[in-house]
Amino acid sequence: MATSARNGPSVWVKGVGHHRGAPRVYFDGLQAIRAGFSPGDPYEVVLEGEGERQRVAIIKCPEGTRIVSAKPAKAARGARGDGADPAPLVPVVDINSKDLLAIFEGMNAIRVVVTEQGVYLLPLASERKKRERLSRLSNKLTQGQPLLMGSLSHGGGVLSHAIHQGLTDAGVKCDLAFANEIREDLLLQAMEHNDAWSPATMALNLPMQEAAQDDWLLGQLPKLEILEHGLPCSGAGRAGRARRGLTKMEDHPEVGHLVFAALVILTKVQPAVVVLENVPLYAETGSAMILRHQLRDMGYECHEAVLEGKDFGSLEDRERWCLVAVTQGVEFNFKDLVPSVRIVKTVRTVLDPSIGPDDPRWRAMEYLKIKRERDAAKGSNFKMQIVDADDTSVPTLRKGYHKGGSTDPLLQHPEDPNLLRLFTAEEHARIKQVPPHLMAGLSDTIAHQLLGQGIVYEPFRAVGRRIGEVVGELIAAADDESYQFEQTAPRPAVG
Fold first, then answer.
1. Crossing angle of helices 125-143 and 457-476, rounded to 10°
2. Active site residue: 61, 174, 233, 302, which one?
3. What average pLDDT does range 62-87 have in this prediction?
4. What whole-number distance in Å separates Cα of residue 131 and Cα of residue 481?
5. What global pTM score does this model have?
6. What is the per-residue pLDDT for 33?
7. What residues sit in the active site (predicted)?
């Protein structure tokens, strides 16, 4: 007995098969009964909508040119005839048409949405969103409009600035739509001194996990072409795990779960390209695995590399894991990202010439030398790291560098071997290749924090340039119908 869908819509995911050289969608039994079909019912199949909002509608109507077919119920198949009632029949709706199902070309599965008004065949939500991202990206590039970028875990915006500059190098315009950062002081610094910002950039000074739950705020966020973020690495590095006694990064009570909030926001803003940076060990975490697999299911292709500062002329050979996820249809690779000629510099080139040999910043650092001897007696591996002006590399300068810890790099006095000093914030910026104006006006303490938790600049400028190059290739393909999806107003029915 046929029933209707009065209790609300039903949604099925159905495979797209092929029969006689044409795509085929087939449903029967309870699925067809719940859709209101009975054997012998007339119905019509029509293509509705335009552009990326097209759908196939299956409507029961007396004047329909198609008839619901029938087959024996599964339990009755193969039963021997014994004079009893004939085997019950169930309805079958079978659509096998190149013309009607052309919008599903290349898809392995689709949505079947059952409502009281009819049955609708539509692309999966992931497929529709993938196509919308490509369309939006291609249209903006073709029309010369700036791409929109968003930033999570913004800090002082060094990564945003590097990606923005790389895009500019490739001739691609970009505007920073919003930046989310929990620290007010760093966000205010970026607002005032980071030229990736504009008056239209939204400042979101709240925890990311709070932003992900704020329906009003999520409603204000625009669709993006690029989303970049460097989720906090406090629980991913060996030192961070050891300090808190963590068995895995996700055990960190404050930042171990932030991949969820990042994915909520990412799902809302639908970027065509996603950039994530972190310590190399982050790539081995459960969070990274969740991110990879969810991005795959959303229609992205993930590309990963470990970028080394020394390959890009940086004195600090900081290694960072970089994941670039591009919407399927955008070609990306890290090939030839590293310059063919490696520039080797000395520490002397970044030193502040105003700091002479008599400057009070030169100190004996006796407390560190005493600790060094104490650690050596205990067999500890903690050692002072002393850098000479003629050295060609500097060990990693961390977020807490201003504290002058026992393993933080110290500069050797040019004349007195007993004297050492910390690098200044400006020198720290030059060591990491970060534009010094991003730290303008900050105390050394805050500047070292901003720099120490961030990136070496040039590798990610190169990533931004490569993104600009590959999305720019879409301009040449702008006339390809696979990128053309007419933008139409939202329809009140299924979509």
1. 90
2. 233
3. 72
4. 11
5. 0.87
6. 82
7. 233
